[in-house]
Specification:
Layout lengths: L22 H13 L1 H8 E8 L5 E3 H10 E16 L2 E14 L2 E19 L2 E11 L3 H21 L2 H6 L8 E4 L3 H4 L3 E3 L1 H10 L9 E12 L2 E12 L2 E15 L2 E11 L2
Parallel strand pairs: 1-6, 7-12
Antiparallel strand pairs: 1-2, 3-4, 4-5, 5-6, 7-8, 9-10, 10-11, 11-12
Helix pairs in contact: 1-2, 2-3
Length: 271
């Protein structure tokens, strides 16, 4: 599941002794949540609380509490907020942008953008959140642009001879794969994954040098299905106006903590 705290990008919030939930109350709750997240969750979250994340995962009160015990929020912006109240029940809807990190690993920041729906009930003199749901939201044009940026960035890092930056565009997964007939000379086989991928990186990355040629691409087609995307295109190596190599390339990407990362690259030489 998408790191529980995707979870509580929400908790827009509740407040005390009033039977009408207002935006001012939600802002007050946000303030309390930042100052003392665990105690605030205990005080203003209903014990029957359920959260359904953007990828369909379901968690309850105890998981939420644990989430705020082991993670720390850095950003939670709620916009286009609308409150609808019927008697002692209120729904809050809008857009959310959220960032957090595990306290044990502050260098790895997780991100989430989406739509939210939070349900509050007035219970024992306070508004308490009882239900929350996130719906992944993405502008297709923005997503396509972000994917192109990853592909172009990884290529430019290769041309610049910057191995560390090149690897930053890849997911940190042992299942990553690179398939190409050009790998036979390095590995004795036309693909790299798992241990052979690690071997390829150890051979190539430390020895990268700045390249004196350009990469040209056309016939680009990018398709997106939730957190997976694949791109196909024709790629040409151009050196001083002369085409040295032409390939048909496929790249598969996965959205991880809000960022697109490469998990597969395959290329086939074209005559």
């Amino acid at each position: 599941m998408k790191t529980l705290i995707t979870l509580f990008a929400f908790l827009p919030s509740l407040i005390f002794a009033q039977a009408t939930l207002t935006k001012a109350q939600l802002e007050e709750y946000d303030k309390k949540l930042k100052e003392n997240p665990v105690e605030t969750v205990k005080q203003y979250t209903h014990k029957d609380f359920t959260f359904i994340s953007g990828n369909g995962s379901r968690v309850g009160y105890n998981e939420l509490l644990a989430n705020y015990t082991y993670n720390k929020e850095t950003v939670r912006n709620l916009t286009d907020v609308k409150i609808t109240q019927v008697n002692q029940t209120a729904s809050v809807t809008g857009k959310i942008e959220h960032e957090w990190f595990a306290i044990s690993n502050p260098a790895k920041v997780s991100k989430y953008k989406g739509m939210f729906t939070y349900i509050y009930v007035y219970d024992a003199g306070a508004w308490k959140i009882i239900s929350a749901q996130h719906t992944d939201f993405a502008n297709k044009e923005q997503e396509v642009a972000a994917i192109k940026k990853v592909i172009e960035g990884e290529t430019q890092a290769y041309l610049d001879g910057d191995g560390k930056k090149l690897l930053s565009y890849w997911a940190d997964k042992k299942t990553n794969e690179h398939a190409s007939q050009y790998l036979v000379q390095f590995l004795g086989q036309p693909y790299a994954t798992g241990e052979s991928m690690a071997k390829l990186q150890n051979l190539v990355v430390p020895n990268l040098k700045k390249q004196d040629f350009k990469i040209e691409r056309d016939d680009i087609d990018i398709r997106i299905n939730k957190d997976m995307a694949w791109a196909t295109y024709t790629q040409k190596v151009n050196a001083n106006g002369k085409i040295l190599q032409t390939d048909r390339e496929t790249r598969i990407l996965e959205r991880i903590n809000g960022d697109w990362k490469l998990v597969y690259v395959g290329e086939q030489a074209m005559k």
